[in-house]
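Q: Hi! Curious about what Large-conductance mechanosensitive channel looks like structurally. Here's the sequence.
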Amino acid sequence: MIKELKEFLFKGNVLDLAVAVVIGAAFKAIIDSLVADVITPLILNPVLKAAGVSNIAELAWNGVKYGSFIAAVINFLIIGTTLFFVVKAANKAMTFRKKEEEEVIAGPTQEELLVQIRDLLASKS
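A: Let's find out. The predicted structure is below.
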């Protein structure tokens, strides 16, 4: 049972997932800071001042605090957009890599080899 646990824990997929979770948490902290410290002061402060609040979390209407929800939506849109571009770049890199591997593996065709053999035989005669 311990051997099976060891195989499971050190399987590539589990380690990759663990790294992804840690990096994702760090990325979330960066995006939270971007929204709270950059976007809110630059873009949302005029709206917040007009609403009479100093913090987006205090933004409410009839007791419904929708300010935190707006911040979460902004976070989601930024993270989603960033991940879209990261995945798109990764897919492009993988396609490029796969194409290079196919070119290396493919080598000369049968016809090209036959032409080379014919030319070698002709040059020896």
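A: A fun detail: The helical segments are 2-9, 12-51, 67-106, 110-124.
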